[in-house]
Specification:
Elements lengths: L11 H28 L15 H6 L4 H31 L5 H7 L2 H4 L2 H12 L5 H8 L13 H29 L3 H9 L4 H29 L3 H6 L11 H11 L3 H31 L6
Length: 298
């Protein structure tokens, strides 16, 4: 802050910001620094720790961590894509002039309002091959000839975790995009309707371009949350069977907490931060370009 003529720097505004700055340093900066410091050691269940440099990072890429990274991005990509598609469709339906629209807006909330653990436990019961509803219905309609344990096979367990994550995340995406759609000027729709434009044309030329920044923003937020999602996979499969649903956050937890290798777990946490930072930077760059063009896609 510039000093006034004949006076020194006014430190009062800085003093007012000091508590917030100290809070940020305490709950954000210091844990990040401590995690990075720990990643350079061989910290484990022992009284002392030794400096090992970047040995933990080298060891990460000597095992199957590359496969875990790829699995994480596939899991995140499929889940976020489905959330955006289903959320957009849901927002379109809730934004339409339909009878009982207010009731449907309330009914879309339970998957998001119900505690995640309770919702995931409900899905785990539905996936059960002996008394689960999904296997039972599939047998009744002839899709299955015998009970099927979804959590016992890698591919079915992987798909099951995605379905559960989408079920939990779609309501928030729907409401966010619904708010974006309601901000679109009604005059644009009226003019297009007067010119004889169809619903598909109005969506493609009016709705979609104007809510594109909201879609990009929600996709970024959903990607970060999905990338760091722990409870859904852990409650359903604990990363199994045979590592088929082990993502980076699950692998970090197993390394640091289950195996008590804190230094290696911290190195994996730092890698998660690096990947998320890079991913967010690319997404924000695309969003800024889209915003500068006024939300109009090329």
């Amino acid at each position: 802050m510039a000093a006034r003529p004949g006076r020194g720097i006014d430190w009062f505004p800085y003093l007012l910001l000091t508590p917030a700055f100290a809070l940020v340093l305490t709950i954000v900066a210091w844990p990040l620094f401590e995690t990075f410091r720990l990643s350079l050691t061989d910290a484990a269940m022992k009284p002392t720790e030794n400096y090992v440099g970047f040995a933990n990072y080298v060891e990460i890429f000597q095992d199957d961590f590359g496969e875990i990274i790829l699995r994480t991005f596939i899991w995140m990509g499929l889940s976020v894509t489905l959330k955006i598609i289903l959320g957009t469709c849901g927002a379109l339906l809730l934004n339409a002039a339909l009878p009982g629209r207010a009731m449907f807006r309330i009914l879309v909330m339970p998957p998001w309002v119900v505690p995640i653990a309770i919702g995931v436990f409900m899905w785990s019961w539905m996936y059960n091959g002996q008394f689960g509803m999904i296997s039972g219905v599939a047998q009744r309609i002839g899709l299955l000839s015998e009970p099927f344990e979804f959590m016992a096979y890698g591919q079915s367990a992987f798909i099951a975790t995605i379905v559960t994550d989408v079920w939990i995340g779609v309501p928030m995406v729907t409401l966010y995009l619904l708010a974006a759609m309601q901000s679109v000027p009604k005059e644009l729709y009226e003019a297009a309707w007067t010119d004889g434009a169809s619903r598909a044309y109005r969506f493609r030329r009016i709705t979609l371009p104007l809510i594109a920044p909201a879609i990009f923003t929600m996709a970024l937020l959903s990607a970060i949350w999905t990338f760091n999602s722990f409870d859904i996979i852990w409650i359903l499969t604990e990363g199994g069977p045979r590592g088929a649903t082990t993502t980076m956050i699950i692998d970090t937890y197993k390394t640091a907490i289950s195996r008590f290798r804190y230094g290696e777990g911290a190195a994996r946490a730092v890698m998660i931060l690096v990947f998320l930072t890079a991913f967010s930077a690319v997404y924000l760059g695309l969003l800024m370009r889209l915003t500068r063009r006024g939300g109009q896609p090329q």
